[in-house]
Amino acid sequence: MGFSEPTTALTDLVLALLALGFSLQLIPYARRLRQESIRDWGLAFGALSIGALTGGISHGFAAQLSEAAHAVVWRITLYSIGFASYYMLAGTARAALRHKAGSWLIMATAVKLAGYLYWTTVRPEFSMAVYDYVPNMLAVLVMGMSLKRRRRNPAGSWLATGVVVSFLAAGIQLSGLTLAEHFNHNDLYHVVQMVALVLFYRGASRLQDVC
Question: Which residues, 6+ apart, have CB-to-CB distance to 157 below 8 Å?
Fold first, then answer.
């Protein structure tokens, strides 16, 4: 039984392990400090880990998966992206926005997440994930910049830079850039996304609740 895309599956697995490691560090840390913002980012990393793992399964075993199995794996990947972007935004909002503004934004994003989960169940297309993910990441970027400027919290710079690097990774994936025969645009995307995860982790670990 051979891999369909071995390098893509391998880089997805590394991405999943990295995200899982960050999740397992942040969630207990958040519990000790009683910081919901850090906890939310820990949950975001957990969702990213699941999405990267199922993405790796989809890439690595595409030829071996039945149509039904592939549909399940693909939907789990899409759901994971939705939960990850929700928790990223919620965690950042708890640290950047006070009281009603933060609560309303988190509630509105939860409603958007519910709509996203419904539509990706009906239409499991990657474009749906993009439509959900990009606005959330732009909000994280703006709030990160606000954290740095208004609250002098270095977490903001790490998070904002992470968003920029994440968008750069997405641009590489869309470009179809291939560096070698067995290292395509998806593989490079995963490597650059690992850098973004490190930046997000550095920022998330420094958050402090205000909402």
Answer: 144, 148, 203
Structure tokens at 76: 């789990």
Any idea where the domains of the chain sit in the sequence?
A: 6-204
pTM of the predicted model as reported, rounded to 2 decimal places? 0.92
In angstroms, rounded to a whole number, what is the distance separating the alpha carbons of residues 207 and 191? Answer: 25
Residue 169 tokens read as: 């990774």
Residue recorded with tokens 């965690």: 91
**CA–CA distance, 129 with 190 (Å, rounded to integer):** 17
C-alpha closest to that of 130 among 142, 141, 138, 122: 138
CA–CA dist 172, 177 (Å, integer):
6
Look up residue 67 and give its two tokens.
């149509």
- pLDDT tens track of the chain, all 211 residues? 556 677 888 999 999 999 999 999 999 999 999 999 999 999 999 999 999 999 889 877 877 888 899 899 999 999 999 999 999 999 999 999 987 899 999 999 999 999 999 999 999 998 899 899 999 999 999 999 999 887 778 999 999 999 999 999 988 877 766 666 667 778 898 999 999 999 999 999 999 998 7
Q: Judge contact between 203 and 89, C-beta under 8 A.
A: no
